[in-house]
Design brief:
mainly beta
Length: about 425
């Protein structure tokens, strides 16, 4: 398991160390909004153990599910290369693993830390933190074979849509891509400087990048690791790990005005105390327009917090929902079910300090915390989850861990897990 300082000063632990990039911090159809059914955990099960022998290893991101119930994700380490995209298809009482793409070809991306998301055309889109023409990362698309494939593994066709150029335009991190109704793509980068929010606009067979906001000016946030979300009016919302008045991170909003472009508003600046610090994860909305998010540090127990921001007049009110006790809190975004319960993971909290899966249930004007699963010190059940969790229509929860499992000699290749009610 990585220690806290290692995780903050480099990318998350890898087996070989070859996946290191020039980045000061390392640091998801995306199911981070409302799900359809509440989940009460009864059974935790590992449904896939990653290995060093062909499947990729150490998934940092969470999962995406299609209408048929198949799971899609990425691994940061790969098959003789830096990362993969995979699919798990339910079959009978088990799951069938398929390798969709392995990164590492000349000009290809490398190190897909974020997950993949279904675009309006039904194909997969994602980012890599490194690789591409100048080595600063890529935005890519994967489309399925146009003919029926009867092989055990059927690679999808990859197209690199954009290669980041360097400077602030470099190193997209954990945040998944989002799309507006016109098909434009939005994401963030977190280089050693401030980072940017960018838009990729389709232009014929190409894509044009527009930088909407550059972070790092005095009082502004820095390093928006968790990506952005869109409201119905087309405004963008996100978090920054650092910056703000106290240097402990921010929640921001970007609003577009014709003739003026995009304007940033800081909705909340973390103070680094009981309100939390270093929000790596992105945000989600509820049906009333309230925002929910997490921080990895701070809080009364030092293990991060879950917070809510509610609109009030021209500002926003901060509400502390829960403080974790431990060494390193949530890195992935929350998910909310139809009953208003929140679900997520922590990286280094939980009973054994290896992370956990949690639920927060609204109750009597407050919130009741339940740990659905504490990852164990023997690591056989996985450890150190980084990505989001997803919830299917039957109330089953799914996610990944970046370490643990039984697929590697030192139990550090990671797993895909399921919790069934």
């Amino acid at each position: 398991m990585c220690n806290k300082q290692h995780f903050r000063n480099s990318l998350p632990c890898t087996i070989s160390g070859v996946a290191r990039v020039a980045l000061a911090v390392a640091i998801v159809f995306v199911l981070t909004g409302s799900a359809t059914q509440s989940a009460q955990a009864q059974t935790y099960k590992v449904i896939y153990n990653f290995t060093l022998n062909g499947t990729g290893f150490q998934p940092y991101a969470g999962l995406t599910m299609d209408a048929a119930g198949s799971l899609y994700g990425t691994t940061s380490g790969g098959v003789n290369g830096p990362g993969t995209v995979f699919e798990l298809t339910p079959k009978g009482s088990g799951w069938v693993f398929s390798l969709l793409h392995r990164f590492g070809a000349v000009g290809d991306g490398a190190l897909p830390w974020a997950g993949v998301a279904f675009g309006p055309d039904g194909t997969l889109y994602g980012t890599t933190a490194s690789g591409g023409v100048s080595g600063n990362g890529t935005v890519f698309n994967l489309s399925p074979p146009t003919t029926i494939c009867r092989a055990v593994t059927c690679p999808w066709t990859e197209t690199v849509l954009y290669s980041f150029t360097g400077g602030n335009d470099a190193n997209p991190a954990l945040g998944d891509l989002v799309f507006d109704p016109a098909g434009n793509i939005y994401g963030t980068t977190i280089p050693a400087g401030g980072g940017v929010v960018y838009q990729l606009a389709p232009s014929g067979n190409d894509w044009t990048e527009n930088v909407l906001h550059t972070f790092g000016s005095p009082g502004d946030g820095a390093q928006p690791a968790g990506g952005v979300i869109l409201d119905d009016a087309g405004n963008l919302y996100g978090t920054t790990v650092y910056g703000g008045a106290s240097g402990a991170g921010t929640v921001f909003k970007l609003t577009y005005s014709a003739g003026l472009g995009w304007t940033e508003t800081i909705l909340y600046g973390f103070q680094g105390g009981n309100d939390g610090s270093e929000p790596y994860a992105g945000l989600i909305f509820d049906s009333s327009g309230n925002l929910y998010g997490t921080t990895t540090g701070g809080g009364q127990g030092g293990g991060g917090v879950v917070f809510e921001l509610t609109p009030s007049g021209s500002g926003w009110n901060y509400i502390l929902l829960h403080s974790f006790t431990g060494s390193y809190g949530p890195l992935g975004p929350l998910i909310m079910d139809s009953a208003g319960s929140l679900y997520g993971t922590t990286y280094g909290d939980g009973a054994d300090g290896a992370g956990n899966i949690f639920e927060l249930t609204p109750s009597g004007g407050g919130w009741t915390y339940t740990s659905l699963h504490d990852f164990s010190t023997d690591r056989h059940d996985g450890s150190n989850p980084i990505g989001n969790v997803i919830l299917d229509s039957h109330g089953n929860l799914y996610g990944t861990t970046s370490n643990g499992g039984t697929g590697c000699r030192y139990n550090n290749c990671g797993v895909v897990w399921e919790i069934t009610p």
